[in-house]
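Assemble and predict.
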Amino acid sequence: MGMSIAHGVAAGMGGIRTAGDLVARMQMARKMRINDAKAYVAKKLKVSPADLSDVHVMREVREELDLGIITSVPGCAKGIEAKVRIAELLDIEIAGVNRLKEKMKF
Amino acid sequence: MAKYLTRRGDGALIEMTSEEIMSDLEAGTADAADKGKIAPLSKDDLDILLDIFTNPTRFVSVEPGNEVVVTHDIGTLRVMGDQGNSGVGIPLSRVQGIQVHERAFCADTMELGHIDYSFKPVKPVIAMEQQEMENALLVTILPLFYGAMPNLGLYYSPDGPFGNPSDLLPAGKIQESYEAQEGAVEHAIRDMVYVCERLAEVGCDGINFDTTGAAGDTDFKATLHAVEHLKKNTDMCIEVGMAGEFVLGMHGGLEYEGQQLAGLYCHDQVKLVEQAGADIFGPVVNTKPSKNMPWNVARAVTFVKACVEASNIPIHVNMGMGVGGSPIFETPPIDSVSRASKAMVEIAKVDGL
């Protein structure tokens, strides 16, 4: 609680509860600084950069686009299923998704 | 005169007036400016810091819209590890630990790490790590790093094949010490590249080189060369997080691309990390327990602000116990941690924590 959770609550984006994982992916895939990464993801999701950390907005957006949500709802994309959709939406390569596609060529 | 609660660098509560706080904020930024040969914080920045430290609430946070990405170190050991890793000893598997971070702690990213958390001991059990990474990647959505320390200390006697510089240097065996450290660099590059390439094969999103430079300039040099190789040969994201605020010159003569490594502070370290091809850099600024938190936070923010301005890649400042304006205390108080967090985001303008 004292360290990682305190930082997450004070300044973190909120992970898959909001759009923290998506913004992180753009920093990782394209070396984007925080404002550029937020602007890129916001444009793809058709929301404002400020909406990316608003759980009320992002819950609905993630459900609509089936990007994986924080609570366990039967039928919603889980794990790698959600990442296939995220790679497509953000137009980035996700290594685990590429591996899945390779394995599906049976 | 009104007094405000704040803390010493060791976490103990103290009371200070706003004049005393401002005086130590000015002294902290001046110390960083002097040591790093960088600009001190402006009057406006110091006023924001004063507002943060005189805020009477227990917990502070950034303004909505200013949130940043949080990356982690130590993997899931904080959940199932022992006190040596500040763990709380809950018997979960590592994949379960990652899922808890994703779904219960709302982590933006997470990492898998070996119980020893160094690259060298991972090499003989790499298939186990690949298997765990494969399982974690299937059931999680958030980006997943593999984290480990270069930890060149493991290559010296009694743990490794080379003589220990801490024994050789006091004995006056300078040349032998150089040779031992240069040998350790070659072995460490080989081991880090081997482990990371095996993880790339199973779809790992990224590698977190954690506490880089812990064994001095040899540690930093080995990491930079490993990063260079991995960026040329894999598609993984690479994060390099440092161990201390400047690179210790255990060897003293080591260079990367013509730049001497010993003595570099974070705003110069980042240029080499960027040159090696890394995607994210984690600067460190040490906390002094004998000084108070206004002094330590002002000092840390001054260094990190210079690093952010010097960088072209995202900066995720290290803010664990004893670094980045957090007190040196194993269970850090949230009033202090949240104030450091807000200051780093809104004054230093970091891209992540």
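Chain A touches chain B through 52 residues (CB under 8 Å).
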